[in-house]
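Input.
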Amino acid sequence: MNIEVLREIVRLLKDENLSEITVSDGESTLTVRQAVGRGADAAGAGAGSQQAPAAAPTPEAVHDGLALTAPLVGTFYRRPTPEDAPFVEPGQVVNPGDTVCLIEAMKVMNEIKAEFAGRLRTVMAEEGAPVEYGQVLFVFDPL
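Output.
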């Protein structure tokens, strides 16, 4: 991996106020972490890091519903553009494969699709907020 790519990854980590980014390029994988709120001096490569991985949140609202979690680290968006309506609203039914949100990572918009059929109960992530891998984004009532 060249130094310019590494610099861009670290810049993205800081600009988006993320705690961790993992990038795979062929057979190599790089994880860059920083302690959120502790400043840039806490940033470092995954090797040798003493920080334990953060557990995915398990809010009470999930206990009897289906949680859809973030498959990657990035910025959460409920709508394709600021002028558009959200992909899904509470009370709306989704089917497997329906787009429910976008996560922007490394300047790429990734469509996040429903993995199951359900009725949206709660939106757990905030529009434009950074999300972590495994973070609960939505809670659905199973159909």
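Residues 60-142 form a domain with the OB fold (Dihydrolipoamide Acetyltransferase, E2P) fold (CATH 2.40.50.100).
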